[in-house]
Specification:
By secondary structure, the protein is of the alpha/beta class. The chain folds into four domains: 218 residues, Spore Coat Polysaccharide Biosynthesis Protein SpsA, Chain A (Alpha-Beta Complex); 95 residues, no CATH class; 107 residues, no CATH class; 183 residues. It is built from 25 helices and 26 strands. The strands form four sheets. Strands 1, 2, 3, 4, 5, 6, 7, 8, 9 and 10 form a ten-stranded mixed beta sheet that branches. Strands 20-21-22-26-25-24-23 form a seven-stranded antiparallel beta sheet. Strands 16-13-17-18-19 form a five-stranded parallel beta sheet. It is globular. The termini are far apart.
Amino acid sequence: MGQNDYKISVITPFHNVDLDMFRVACDSVMSQTIGFENIQWIVVLHNCEEHYLTEVPAMFEGYDNVLTPVLNNDAKTPSSPRNHGLTFATAPYIAFLDGDDSFTPHCFEAVLNEFQRSNSQIVCFRREYELERPGLEVYTETVLWNQANERIIVEKENWDVEKMFDGVFGMVTSKAYDRVFLISNNLIFDEDIPYAEDMAYVAQAFAAADKICYLPQLIGYHYYVNGASLVQSTDKDGATLISYAKGFAKLFDMFLQYGIDTDDVQGLCLRESFFILNSKAITAEERGVIRDILAPYILDTKMLEPSKGRDLDACHMLYYIPREVILNPDDPYSGPHVRSMQNGSNALFKILLDNMSTDYGEKFSFKTLKTIDAYRFRVPLSTADTLKPLIALQTNIGEQNILTSSPIQNYFTTEYEGLLLPSTQPHFLQYVNALSETLAHKKSALFAAIHNTRRMTNDQAVVSDIETTLVRNLINDCIPSHPEYEIHFSSKEGVYYSYEDDELYMRLMADALLSSDLEQLVAFTTDKLAHAFALLYEQQEAVLALVREKDPVRADEVKEILSQNSGTPIARALWPRLERTVAYGAGEMYESMRRMRSYTGDLPHNHGYLYSPVALLGRAVSDDSDLFSMSAATGSNFYELLPISDDGSGNQALTLSEAEHDKPYQLVVTNQAGLYRYVTDHFICVKEVDFSSVRFTIY
C-alpha cells in the first residue's frame, strides 16, 4: 500500500512507556475493524532510554505502515513529538493515541463513516477510563449534550459555545481531525505551553472549524489513568509552576480572542492553586510572580452556575480557592475555604448530606450544619458506650437508618466488651482498594486467615473480624470481578477456607516456598509473617513434606537452603526475586517486627496500611519508614485530634490544621459507616500537615 492510500494516520508520543502497556495499545490499533493495513501509525520515540530505540522498532518489524522516528530534545510534554509525528502523516485523517491508552475496536470505522457522512473537520467521541490505582484524579469529559442523540452536528454559523467548551473539548485524544484542515490552519501544538497543551490545541481547532460532528454514544478511547503521569504529580517546584501560569495566561488570552467565556476555564487557576498548596519547593516570591501573571484573569471571572458537570460546591471551589491561594502569595493556606478543605470538609459534608435523614442525623440537625465548627459545636464526641445501645437496636431487633442511611453490610469485632463497629459498602471499599493495590501486579504470598466464626445479625449484616472479611472479599468478589488488578498470590483460595491456626500458616508457607519467584510477602501485621517463619523452622519436616508432595526438587532445594543459612536471615535465599515485605509493624507490633527481621534481614519492609475497624487510618509513606500518611482534603473520613492531658480531662478536639507537630493525640474519626466524632483507641504523633495529608507516627 502506498503512503497516500492509508485511511487514517495515528500519532503516538512514546516516552519510556511500559512495554506490556504499550502492547495493549498495539493490539487496539491492529484490531481496528477497518484493517490495520489501512492505518498509518507514527510512534515518535521521544527522549527514550536506549533500550526502547531497538525494542519498539523490533515490535513492528515487517510492518511498512508503522514509523518509529526518534526525537531527542529538552521538551517534557507530548507537544513536540506530536508535532514531529504530524510531519510524517499522509492519510486524510489524523488521530492521537497515548502509549498507555487504547482505542475500542470499532472506533475508526465509526469515525471515518461520520467524516464522509457529515463532511466535518473534527469528529468527537467518548473516553472511558481505567485507574491504575484507587484515588487517582480522573479528568473525565462529562458533556452537556443530549446523549440520546447518536450524532450532533455543530456549524460555525450556529455555534453552541457553552456545550462546545464545557467538558468535551479538553483532551486531544478523543477526537479525529481532517489533515488538510489542520495544515491549512497551521494547527500545531504550542510547545511553550507546558501544561494543558491539549486544551490549547483543541480550542484552536474548534475555533477554526466550520463543522464539528459529535458522537455522544460512541465510546472510542480507553484512557489509562497512570499515577506517575505529569497530570497526577502534584509536588512541583516554583519555576515549573511559574511556567504553568504563563501557559495558562496564553490560554486565557486565546479564549478571549475566540469569544469564549473564560469563566468556563477557571479550573486552570484552581489546578494551579492545588499545585501551589502541595508544593514543598516554592517560595513566597515565586508565588508572587504567579499572582502577577494570573490575577487579571482571576479577577475577571465570575462564579459559575451549577450544571450537570459541577455542583454548587464545585462552583464555590472554582471561584474562591484561586482567590485565596493565588491572590495571597504570602499565606496561601489562610483562606477559610482552603482551611476547610485542608481539614477534610469535603468528606465531612458528604457524610452529613448522605445521613441527614437518619435518627442520629435528625437528632443533631445534620442538614443545618454548614461548617466544620458548627459540626463540632452541635455533635458531641462519642465513645463505645454511646454506640452500644444503638448498634444493639440494629443487630438484635433489625432496626435500620439509625446511624447511616446506607445498609450495614458488616460488623467488625473489636476488643472492647463485644462492641461491634458497623461497615457500609462505601466504607468497606476503602479497605478493598487498599489490599488490592498492595497485591496488584506483584507475585505475592498472602499470610492471612479466614476465621470461620462469622454470624448474621437481624439487620442482615455479617459479623466477623476485619482480616477475615477482607480476605473473603478479595477471593470471592474482588479478583473475579476485577481481573485488571492482576492479583496473583501463591496459595489457592481453598487453603484459606480449609485450615486454621498453625496448620494454615504451615500450608501458606509451603505454598510460598513452591513459588521461587515471589516478589513480596504480605500480611496484615508483622506477627503473622514472624509466626510463619518460626513454623518453617519448628515444623521444618512437616512443611517440607507439603512442598515435596507437589515439587520434590524444590523441597530438596529448600532443605539445602535451610541447612546452609541456619541462624541467619533467610528470605532472600529462599526467594531471589523478593523485593519487600508488607505488613503493619509499628507501635504495638515493634517486637514482632524485630522477630520478622531475624528472617528477612535488610530486605526492604513497608508497613503498608494501618487497618482499623473504625477506618483505614493511614498508609506508610515509603519502604523502611515509620511515617504514615492519612488523606484529609481528598479522603473519605473526617479526622480530629484530641490532645492528651495529664489528668485526662478537659481537652477539646482539634482540627488537623490546629495540630502541633511532635505532640501525641488521640484520633477522633467521623466515617461513612455511622461513626460521628468517635474517640478511637489510636494514638498518633503528628509530624507534618500539608494541604492534602497528615503524616504521623504511631504513638
